[in-house]
Every structure is written in structure tokens, then in C-alpha cells.
């Protein structure tokens, strides 16, 4: 048996080897970064998107929560939205009519995230109770008007920060948690199918804040963490992350797949959004805001969403701004936070309707707003 | 990001044993990590420069109709403008507490 001293020696050598490999990887990546999206797009003659002042307008305000809105999600087919709030309720909205169809009082009011099932028949939510609760929207409410929980997914050892159903699979859901892991669940049985991270190497080393499933290949998902990295996972191989993406210098609060499924965007406490190439791991672009005179400290990015083509990147910031970035030119083309009828507080969550015709924003001002294009659309 | 140094053993035999187990576990993790990094490096040796992937990004993006853009490719879907038409579903609110 090797002595402690010998093991220590081996450990030191392995540490040096890992550090050297990381450095080689970094250097190799640098040699491949011959341009970024903005420089390339300019070289190809692309001009920034230009909005008139009334092109993107707030066309609905969804009022009903009595606390900050923390999370929202659209149904894939209908114009329905579920929102989760500090008031301890989920509200299901018909976004077109602004009417509420369901208000669900939660047993644990400390909710952080919510999601609609692909068929629009169930909603899921999670938060500080470290569980994910599923509600069937066709269930009958009890005498007090409370909706029964149809399933509680337990097993996380920390808060549930984010949840998303696997597209086209009502029975599969992925959660991220403060326990540094993500979990794939069978919603029907309540069983954990796979745990991503935790004791395995190449897992996150701090709280996981956000997940996004690739709609082009639903076996793949990305997770963003307070360890400043994003990791790509294959749900068929839980034992290791497929790839780790470095670059951010703060917690990664939001990850979102790009509509083509080949790239993904991130939003971080370091104040930047970034675009990564999933396959190669290249960081394609950094979207950095110019420091504002009013910024005592750099606002953090709380949530992101892409327009359906990917040309627009919406980013909510901790100071109440909601920038619309031109993804190609890396320029801010609009600030929804400054527009008429905008929110009075921080925009905490963003979501794009499935057909891309409307953006929903949720805010600490207790409201949700629907934004759509009302200008003259030029078709080329 | 640098990997930190390993922990040392304690004074007595049991501390020695604990130290040995811990270092062995860390060593295993490091060796696995090194294998993953070597694989990534190998892949990266064959990877193209960033610029080669960007034409595909531009083409894919500009091929897709986007209802939120002032200038977009077609086809236009009439339902995009439903947000500016009158409410279409005025069924009674089914919510119990409001």
C-alpha cells in the first residue's frame, strides 16, 4: 500500500497535470478565436436592427399577484402563461384576454420557479422547500378553493431554482438546485431517473441556478451555476458533463438555448450576457453594458430570452433595465425598462411565446406584461 | 482556475488512514478530470476557427421569420398580430379567490 507521502506526491503531480491541461486548453481556444459575432457580422455588411419608438409596445398588463413575480412560463400551444410569485401563489393566465384561469395557493409559499407541461394540462413549481410540486389543472379544488398537489418530487438537498419539462414529454421534467445538481424526474412515478453532478467529477461545484433543454435534441440540456460555469449534459449519460463552458466571472443566473439548438446564451452576476457554441465550446460573443453614471455597481443579469430567429436577445438587469440586444451586432437597440407603460420594478423573468409573436416580462412590481410588435413590418 | 493542493494526514494511525483515503479519492477525481480534459483538447485540435461557424449562424438566423423584427423574412402569419385585436375569449374567470 502506498504511504501517505507517496500519495501526496502523486496528488501534487496530478494537480500539476490538470492545471497544465487547462492552460493548454485555454491557449488552444485563444488561437481559434479569430473573431466574434459582432466583428464578423460587420465584416459581412450587417446593420443593426432599428426600432421606431412605438414598434415594440406593452399590449397587456397581467395584474393579480400581491407579491414580486419570480418566474413565468408559456404553454407551447396556447396563449397561456403560468407565473410564480412571492405571494405564494401560481397564477395561470390566458395572456390574450388577460384573464386568470387558475390561482393555486402553495403549501410552501417560498416559490422560485414554475413551468407548464407541454400539453398545457399541468404546471410544476419549486422553491425553498427543496421539492418540485405538480398540479393537474383539471383537478377539482377543495372546499377552501385549494388545488390539490398531484405529485411532489422530493430528493433535492437544496432549494429548487429552476424547472423545465422535456419538450413533448409530459412525464419528464428537469430541475436544478442549490444542492449543486440537476435531476431528471419521472413525473408519473415521482422517481428520480438521473442525477447530474453531485459526487461525480465534472459536476457543478456551487448552486445551480438555471437549466435549458435543447428543443432540437431533447437529450441535451445546459445548466448555469454559481461556480461561474455552464455545463452541457446528455440525459442518457449522467455520470459526467459533456462539456464545461468557462468565461463568466460571476454566478450564471440564466441559460437559454438559442432557437437553432446549436448555441446557447447566458446571463450572469458579472453583468454580461454571452453566446456560446455548444459543440466547440467557443465563446462567440460577450454582451457587455457600458457602465452608466447611475450605476453604483454593475447591474447583474437576472434573466434572458431570445426572439424566435435569435436576432434579438432580451436581458433583464437588477436595476430594472431590460435591454434588447441585437445578437449579431452586440448593440443595445432598445431598453424595455424605459418604455412607456413599463414595469416599476426589477424585471425578474422573461419568456417568449412559442410562435415568437410576444415577449412576457415578470417583475418585482407584482405585474406581468406582454410585449409585441405594433409597427410596420417589412418583409424581405 | 487552479486546482488546489491536497490535504495532509494527521498525527496518529487513524488520522493517517483518513488522510490516505481522502487523498486517494481526490487523486481519482483528478485523474478522471485529466482524462476529460485530454479528450476535450483532442477534440479542440480538430476544431475549426470561430469564423467558420459564424456564416452558418447568420444564414440560419436570417432564414427564420421573426414577428418581433421590423424587417424580417416571410412568410407572415396573421396570428402574430392577435395581441392588437380585441379580446377573443371572454369566458367567465374561473378563478376561485378573485
Word description of this protein:
The complex is a heterodimer of chains A (380) and B (98). Chain A has 380 residues and is mainly beta. Helix content of chain A is 9%, strand content 43%. Chain A has two helices and 29 strands. In chain A, the strands form seven sheets. A four-stranded antiparallel β-sheet of chain A has the order 1-28-27-26, with no helix packed on it. Chain A starts with a helix and ends with a strand. With 98 residues, chain B is mostly helical. Chain B has a domain at 14-65. Chain B is built from two helices and one strand; from the N terminus they run H-H-E. The interface between A and B is large, with 89 and 72 residues. Strand 29 (378-379) of chain A pairs parallel with strand 1 of chain B, so a sheet runs across the interface.
Helical stretch tally of chain B: 2
As for the number of domains of chain A, it is 2
- What is the alpha-carbon Rg of chain A in Å? 21 Å
Distance between the termini of chain A: 73 Å
